[in-house]
Amino acid sequence: MFRSFATFNYRTWFFGAVISNIGGWMQATAQDWVVLTELTDNDATAMGVTMALQFGPPLLLVSLTGWVADRFDRRKVLLATQTTLMTLAVAVAVLLLTGVMTLPLMFLFALCFGITNAFDAPARQAFVSDMVSLEDTSNAVALNSASFNMARLIGPAVGGVLIVAIGSGWVFIANAITFLAMLVALLLIRKGELIPRAKNRRGGGGLAAGFRYVMGRGDLKVVFVMVFLIGAFGMNFPIFASTMALEFHRGADGYGLLSSVLAIGSLAGALLAARRDRARVRVLVIAAGGFGAASIISAMMPTYGAYAVVLTFVGFSTVTMLTTANGYVQTTTDPALRGRVLALYMAVVMGSTPIGAPIAGWVVDTFSARTAIVVGGVAGLLACAIGVGWMLWSGRLHRREDARFLLTLDETRPVSVVRAMEPTSYSDPAASTTPLRLPETEPGRAPKAGPEPSEA
């Protein structure tokens, strides 16, 4: 389950990320509560607009952010984005503590957070594959999700208590301090132990190359559509949890507790995903169906406690789905295009929020929080149906040869890597004209150079 921890760089990254993510969830809880109760009078639509501004830039800037993740040193990109996010947190804290924060100003800062995260997210996701081998990438992605949800378990509850105890402005200060853990981790990473990155020597093509790659893969198109549906209409948890807390007559601490309860199931889903040898589409489809069912059931719960219990199953299915989708995209994508494809994926995950969050806020204000949750659940069931339909239509689902009444699904295998080859010198012409030779030297020595290949 923890095999990626054998790598020093990944261990360092993991523990820095846990601390930083705890602060991030504390800040997210404070920001949502400030917009909902301090800057407005329980206006869920304003909260949806804030989320739209924060998560919209990954969709609008995807052509640039994916190129940056593939073109530049990802470690240096992350140092720049993490420093910027820390500075923004301090600025918001000062405005809140001095009493001059307004709703338009919060909208502006949400946009700035979104622009910075648009560059941070694809670089951070792709950086995982720079620290571990291809065989451990799926495990590392799952452990990353476990780190994120471990922080989600602690951060909102602590954030909710701190809002009541010392005020929302100081929560932003606390988050700014936690960014130091990630910055120190990035500085401690051993650059010489990072995995060499494959380079695309065909001129790149920018985002268009990544888009053509995804459009040529039916399995990736289905994964993206499923994630978009659930991301847009089902994963508006800040709106759902905060408005349900108000419906059950709870304050900021009650909202923070619901977010932490959601993280209990999320952490369990991430750890279970870490035990799997690789990511599979069928797990994604099952998780989408589980998300839809659990969401609809949660909307029917009559008490705060019952809603919280069902919310753990919502969190479990959500993270199982996202971790599987992320691992599948990373391990089955051409390494030379991984940054751009991941930028597209993150644009779908984060960029779906600007579409769904305002709609969810409007549904809450017009009908009820429970109605909005049911809409998200229906989106999950629709995503599951699309996945099942693709498995049947693609011809990958067929009867097992060794069992008459059992079915099996042909999965896309991760790209195999020949260790004797230098990945940075890879190109399509070389792959088609250069014969593969097994190394005939002792371990630790470079293989002997063979004769020059002739033109095909």
From TrEMBL:
Every Major facilitator superfamily (MFS) profile domain range: 1-395
PANTHER family for this protein: INTEGRAL MEMBRANE EFFLUX PROTEIN-RELATED, STAPHYLOFERRIN A TRANSPORTER
Main location: membrane
Annotated membrane topology: Multi-pass membrane protein
Organism annotation: Microbacterium bovistercoris
UniProt cross-references to Gene3D superfamilies, sorted A to Z: MFS general substrate transporter like domains
Subcellular location: Cell membrane
SUPFAM superfamilies in the record: MFS general substrate transporter
One annotated Gene Ontology cellular component of this protein: plasma membrane
Record keywords: Cell membrane, Membrane, Transmembrane, Transmembrane helix, Transport
Organismal lineage: Bacteria, Bacillati, Actinomycetota, Actinomycetes, Micrococcales
CDD domains attached to this UniProt entry: MFS_MefA_like
Keyword flag Transport: yes
Transmembrane segments: 12-28, 48-69, 90-116, 157-189, 222-242, 254-274, 281-301, 307-329, 341-364, 370-393
Tree of life domain: Bacteria
Gene Ontology MF, one: transmembrane transporter activity
Polar residues bias locations: 424-435
Annotated region (Disordered), positions in chain: 420-456
Record-given protein name: MFS transporter
Annotated Pfam families: MFS_3
